[in-house]
C-alpha cells in the first residue's frame, strides 16, 4: 500500500503541472487583461468587455486606438502603460512568467489580488464560510437521505414505493437549481417583494400568479440574504445556532436538490447487484436475518461504488460553489469570487485558486483510495498495479 500511495503522490506533480500549463496557455489567447481593465476603469468604461470591443465613433479616435497596443488607452501616456506592465510582470516573456508563478506556488506563495489589495489566501479564507456551508451541509444531507432511500428502493425493487420515489427524484434532478431557488424565495422569503433579474419576475407574475402571490404581505418565513443576521454577535450561543440554520436552510436545499437522483439511483443499483450474488444466498441459507445480511455483508460491498463518487461530489460542491444560487441569496462565496476574478482578469486569484483546489482534489482522490482499504481489506491496489 505504501508503494501505491507514493506512486499516486508522485503523479500529482505532472497532473497538476499539466493542468496549470493548459490553463495558462489558454489565458494567453483570451482578449483583454488586467491592464485593459484598469484602463477601462480610469476612462469611465468600468467593464473589461467594453475595452475589448473598442470605442470611438470618429476616424481620429479610431486611428489613435489603432496605433495603441491597448484598445481604449486614449489619453494615457505610454510611460504609464509601461509602468503597469512592469507592475503586473507583463514585461517578461510568458514562459518566464509561468515559471516564476509555479515557483511561487510550490512555496505556497499565491501572491496578491490585482484589484483588491489583499492576498489570495486571505481572500479565499474570507469567502470560505459560504462554501463550507453550502458544500458541507449539501453533501451531508445528500448522503444522509440518498443512501437510506437507495437501500429501501433496492429492497422493494419494482414496488409502488420504488416507482413513485423514482419519479420524484427524477423530477427533482430535472429542475435546475437556480429555478428551484427562485421558487423557494417566492414561497418562503417574500419573493413577491423581490425583483429578480432577466425578466424572471414578469414571467412568474404572468404565468404562475398563484406562486408569485403566495406571500401577499411580503412576510419572510426565511431570510433572503446572508449567512447570519445583523445582530448575530449579540445572540446567545444557542441563538447563533438557530440564526445560522435559519439563514442556510433555503440555499442548502436549493444546492442539494439535484444531488439526490444520482446518488440514490447509484446506491439502489449497487445494492441490487450485490443482492443477486451468491454469497447473499448462502448467508440467507445459513439462517441470518435480512437485516444482518443487508447491513453486515451487502452494505460494505455496495458502498464501494458510492464512496468512489464522494470526491467529485464534495470537491465540486465545496470548491466550485454555485454562482447563481450565491447571487440569488446574496452570498459572497467562492463561486462569485471565481467569476469576478475571471471577468476582471485577476490572474493571481484565478491561478492561485486553480492550483490550490486542484491539489486538494487530487489529494482527496488518494484519501478515497485509502478509505477503500478500510471498507474492504480484500482490495489491493499494489497487486492491481
TrEMBL record:
Membrane topology: Multi-pass membrane protein
Bilayer-spanning residue ranges: 9-30, 130-151, 163-189, 244-267, 302-329, 349-375
SUPFAM superfamilies, per database record: MetI-like
Keyword entries, A-Z: Cell membrane, Membrane, Transmembrane, Transmembrane helix, Transport
GO biological process: microcin transport; transmembrane transport
A GO term from the CC aspect: plasma membrane
Superkingdom in the source lineage: Bacteria
InterPro entries reported for this sequence: MetI-like, MetI-like_sf
Subcellular location: Cell membrane
Classification via Pfam families: BPD_transp_1
Domain called ABC transmembrane type-1: residue spans: 128-372
Main localization of the protein described in the UniProt heading: membrane
Keyword Amino-acid biosynthesis set for record: no
Similarity remark: Belongs to the binding-protein-dependent transport system permease family.
Name of the molecule in the record: Microcin C transport system permease protein
Organism listed in the record: Cognatiyoonia koreensis
